[in-house]
Amino acid sequence: MSRYAEPMARLIEELKKLPGVGAKSAQRYAFHLLRSSDEDAAALAEAVRGLKASLRLCSICNNVTDIDPCAYCASPSRNQRLVCVVEEPTNIDTVERARGSQGSFQGVYHVLHGTLSPLHGVGPDQLRTGSLIARVERGEVDEVILAMSPTLEGEATADWLATALRSFSVRITRIATGVPAGSDIEYADEVTMARALEGRRDM
Ligand SMILES: [Zn+2]
Q1: How far, in Å, from the CA of 75 to the mean position of ligand 1?
Q2: DSSP secondary structure of 48-59
Q3: Ligand 1 center from residue 63 Cα (angstroms)
Q4: How far, in Å, from the CA of 61 to the mean position of ligand 1?
Q5: Over 90: is that where the pLDDT of 125 sits?
Q6: Could you give the residue ranges of the DSSP H alpha helices within the chain?
Q7: What digits encode the pLDDT tens for the residues 104-113?
Q8: Range 81-89 average pLDDT
Q9: 188 CA distance to ligand 1 centroid (A)?
Q10: b/e map 84-102, b = 16+ CB within 10 Å
Q11: Fewer C-beta within 10 Å: the chain N or C terminus?
Q12: How many A from CA of 39 to the centre of ligand 1?
Protein backbone atom coordinates (compact mmCIF):
# COMPACT_ATOMS: atom_id res chain seq x y z
CA MET A 1 0.00 0.00 0.00
CA SER A 2 1.20 3.51 -0.83
CA ARG A 3 2.18 5.73 2.07
CA TYR A 4 0.40 8.63 0.34
CA ALA A 5 -3.29 9.33 -0.02
CA GLU A 6 -4.54 8.00 -3.35
CA PRO A 7 -4.72 11.37 -5.25
CA MET A 8 -1.16 12.20 -4.20
CA ALA A 9 0.15 8.74 -5.13
CA ARG A 10 -1.58 9.04 -8.51
CA LEU A 11 0.02 12.42 -9.27
CA ILE A 12 3.46 11.15 -8.22
CA GLU A 13 3.04 8.13 -10.51
CA GLU A 14 2.15 10.40 -13.47
CA LEU A 15 5.01 12.85 -12.81
CA LYS A 16 7.50 9.95 -12.67
CA LYS A 17 6.71 9.24 -16.33
CA LEU A 18 8.31 12.57 -17.37
CA PRO A 19 11.88 12.38 -18.69
CA GLY A 20 14.48 13.03 -16.02
CA VAL A 21 11.96 12.94 -13.17
CA GLY A 22 12.71 10.32 -10.54
CA ALA A 23 10.72 9.36 -7.44
CA LYS A 24 12.26 12.13 -5.31
CA SER A 25 11.56 14.93 -7.82
CA ALA A 26 8.05 13.60 -8.45
CA GLN A 27 7.29 13.81 -4.73
CA ARG A 28 8.73 17.32 -4.54
CA TYR A 29 6.62 18.52 -7.52
CA ALA A 30 3.48 16.86 -6.16
CA PHE A 31 3.83 18.51 -2.74
CA HIS A 32 4.64 21.83 -4.39
CA LEU A 33 1.39 21.57 -6.38
CA LEU A 34 -0.54 20.68 -3.24
CA ARG A 35 0.74 23.87 -1.59
CA SER A 36 0.17 26.07 -4.66
CA SER A 37 -3.02 28.08 -5.21
CA ASP A 38 -6.09 26.55 -6.82
CA GLU A 39 -5.53 28.92 -9.78
CA ASP A 40 -1.94 27.78 -10.38
CA ALA A 41 -2.87 24.10 -10.15
CA ALA A 42 -5.82 24.62 -12.51
CA ALA A 43 -3.63 26.56 -14.98
CA LEU A 44 -1.14 23.68 -15.13
CA ALA A 45 -3.90 21.09 -15.60
CA GLU A 46 -5.49 23.22 -18.33
CA ALA A 47 -2.14 23.74 -20.14
CA VAL A 48 -1.58 19.96 -20.23
CA ARG A 49 -5.15 19.32 -21.43
CA GLY A 50 -4.94 22.09 -24.05
CA LEU A 51 -1.67 20.71 -25.40
CA LYS A 52 -3.30 17.44 -26.38
CA ALA A 53 -6.63 18.95 -27.38
CA SER A 54 -5.39 21.71 -29.71
CA LEU A 55 -2.07 20.46 -31.11
CA ARG A 56 -1.82 18.05 -33.99
CA LEU A 57 0.60 17.18 -36.76
CA CYS A 58 0.53 19.20 -39.99
CA SER A 59 -1.04 17.04 -42.70
CA ILE A 60 1.67 18.13 -45.15
CA CYS A 61 4.94 18.23 -43.20
CA ASN A 62 4.18 16.52 -39.82
CA ASN A 63 5.26 19.59 -37.85
CA VAL A 64 3.47 20.04 -34.51
CA THR A 65 0.86 22.74 -35.07
CA ASP A 66 -2.44 24.19 -33.87
CA ILE A 67 -3.53 25.03 -37.43
CA ASP A 68 -3.47 22.66 -40.41
CA PRO A 69 -1.58 23.15 -42.70
CA CYS A 70 1.06 24.64 -40.39
CA ALA A 71 2.29 28.25 -40.71
CA TYR A 72 5.26 27.19 -42.90
CA CYS A 73 3.24 25.06 -45.31
CA ALA A 74 0.53 27.76 -45.58
CA SER A 75 2.99 30.64 -46.11
CA PRO A 76 2.87 32.22 -49.60
CA SER A 77 6.23 33.92 -48.96
CA ARG A 78 8.14 30.67 -48.45
CA ASN A 79 9.49 28.46 -51.22
CA GLN A 80 7.18 25.43 -51.02
CA ARG A 81 9.40 23.55 -53.50
CA LEU A 82 12.47 23.61 -51.22
CA VAL A 83 11.99 21.03 -48.47
CA CYS A 84 14.31 20.65 -45.49
CA VAL A 85 13.96 17.20 -43.91
CA VAL A 86 14.55 17.06 -40.15
CA GLU A 87 14.35 14.38 -37.47
CA GLU A 88 12.21 16.12 -34.86
CA PRO A 89 9.89 19.18 -34.73
CA THR A 90 12.41 20.91 -32.40
CA ASN A 91 15.01 20.81 -35.22
CA ILE A 92 12.88 23.28 -37.22
CA ASP A 93 13.73 25.93 -34.65
CA THR A 94 17.46 25.29 -35.15
CA VAL A 95 17.13 25.81 -38.92
CA GLU A 96 14.90 28.87 -38.45
CA ARG A 97 17.53 30.50 -36.23
CA ALA A 98 20.31 29.92 -38.81
CA ARG A 99 21.59 33.23 -40.21
CA GLY A 100 24.19 33.02 -42.97
CA SER A 101 25.52 35.22 -45.75
CA GLN A 102 22.48 34.23 -47.82
CA GLY A 103 20.08 35.19 -45.01
CA SER A 104 17.68 32.80 -43.35
CA PHE A 105 16.16 29.58 -44.71
CA GLN A 106 13.20 30.38 -46.97
CA GLY A 107 11.93 26.90 -47.73
CA VAL A 108 9.59 24.55 -45.87
CA TYR A 109 10.02 21.37 -43.84
CA HIS A 110 9.29 17.69 -43.52
CA VAL A 111 9.51 16.11 -40.06
CA LEU A 112 10.34 12.39 -39.86
CA HIS A 113 9.72 12.04 -36.09
CA GLY A 114 12.83 9.92 -35.56
CA THR A 115 15.71 8.25 -37.36
CA LEU A 116 16.32 4.77 -38.66
CA SER A 117 17.65 2.62 -35.85
CA PRO A 118 17.77 -1.12 -36.58
CA LEU A 119 19.07 -1.72 -33.03
CA HIS A 120 15.89 -0.22 -31.59
CA GLY A 121 13.63 -1.74 -34.20
CA VAL A 122 12.96 1.53 -36.06
CA GLY A 123 12.67 0.88 -39.80
CA PRO A 124 11.48 3.16 -42.64
CA ASP A 125 7.86 2.17 -41.92
CA GLN A 126 8.08 3.59 -38.39
CA LEU A 127 9.19 7.00 -39.74
CA ARG A 128 7.02 9.47 -41.63
CA THR A 129 8.81 8.91 -44.93
CA GLY A 130 5.83 7.97 -47.11
CA SER A 131 4.30 11.44 -47.30
CA LEU A 132 7.68 12.96 -48.26
CA ILE A 133 8.19 10.45 -51.05
CA ALA A 134 4.61 11.16 -52.22
CA ARG A 135 5.28 14.92 -52.31
CA VAL A 136 8.35 14.34 -54.47
CA GLU A 137 6.54 11.80 -56.65
CA ARG A 138 3.78 14.34 -57.38
CA GLY A 139 6.48 16.71 -58.68
CA GLU A 140 5.88 19.27 -55.91
CA VAL A 141 9.53 19.52 -54.84
CA ASP A 142 12.65 20.89 -56.58
CA GLU A 143 15.15 20.16 -53.82
CA VAL A 144 15.17 17.97 -50.73
CA ILE A 145 17.73 19.02 -48.11
CA LEU A 146 18.55 16.12 -45.79
CA ALA A 147 19.25 17.91 -42.49
CA MET A 148 19.46 14.91 -40.19
CA SER A 149 22.14 15.02 -37.49
CA PRO A 150 25.60 13.69 -38.50
CA THR A 151 25.16 10.70 -36.17
CA LEU A 152 25.20 7.03 -37.20
CA GLU A 153 21.37 6.95 -37.26
CA GLY A 154 21.13 10.34 -39.01
CA GLU A 155 23.53 9.29 -41.77
CA ALA A 156 21.75 5.95 -42.23
CA THR A 157 18.43 7.79 -42.55
CA ALA A 158 19.87 10.28 -45.06
CA ASP A 159 21.31 7.42 -47.15
CA TRP A 160 18.03 5.53 -47.09
CA LEU A 161 16.01 8.59 -48.17
CA ALA A 162 18.50 9.56 -50.90
CA THR A 163 18.17 6.06 -52.34
CA ALA A 164 14.36 6.12 -52.09
CA LEU A 165 14.17 9.51 -53.87
CA ARG A 166 16.85 8.91 -56.50
CA SER A 167 14.47 7.73 -59.23
CA PHE A 168 12.54 11.02 -59.19
CA SER A 169 13.66 14.25 -60.84
CA VAL A 170 14.54 16.10 -57.67
CA ARG A 171 17.80 17.55 -56.35
CA ILE A 172 18.88 15.74 -53.17
CA THR A 173 21.37 17.49 -50.89
CA ARG A 174 22.90 16.75 -47.49
CA ILE A 175 23.89 19.50 -45.05
CA ALA A 176 27.66 20.04 -44.74
CA THR A 177 29.54 18.73 -41.75
CA GLY A 178 29.72 22.24 -40.25
CA VAL A 179 27.74 20.51 -37.54
CA PRO A 180 30.36 18.39 -35.72
CA ALA A 181 30.17 14.69 -36.61
CA GLY A 182 28.27 12.64 -34.05
CA SER A 183 26.43 15.63 -32.58
CA ASP A 184 22.75 16.46 -32.65
CA ILE A 185 21.76 19.40 -34.88
CA GLU A 186 19.50 20.56 -32.07
CA TYR A 187 22.60 21.97 -30.35
CA ALA A 188 24.05 23.71 -33.42
CA ASP A 189 24.27 27.50 -33.09
CA GLU A 190 22.91 29.83 -35.79
CA VAL A 191 26.27 30.34 -37.54
CA THR A 192 27.16 26.64 -37.57
CA MET A 193 23.71 25.72 -38.87
CA ALA A 194 23.86 28.43 -41.56
CA ARG A 195 27.26 27.12 -42.75
CA ALA A 196 25.92 23.57 -42.77
CA LEU A 197 22.97 24.64 -44.94
CA GLU A 198 24.96 26.85 -47.33
CA GLY A 199 27.68 24.23 -47.73
CA ARG A 200 25.22 21.44 -48.53
CA ARG A 201 26.36 18.99 -51.18
CA ASP A 202 24.53 16.88 -53.74
CA MET A 203 23.97 13.25 -52.87
ZN1 LIG B 1 3.42 21.91 -42.39
Answers
A1: 9
A2: HHHHHHH-EE-T
A3: 5
A4: 4
A5: no
A6: 6-15, 23-35, 38-54, 71-74, 89-97, 130-137, 152-165, 190-198
A7: 899 999 999 9
A8: 96
A9: 23
A10: bbbbbbebbebbeebebee
A11: N
A12: 35
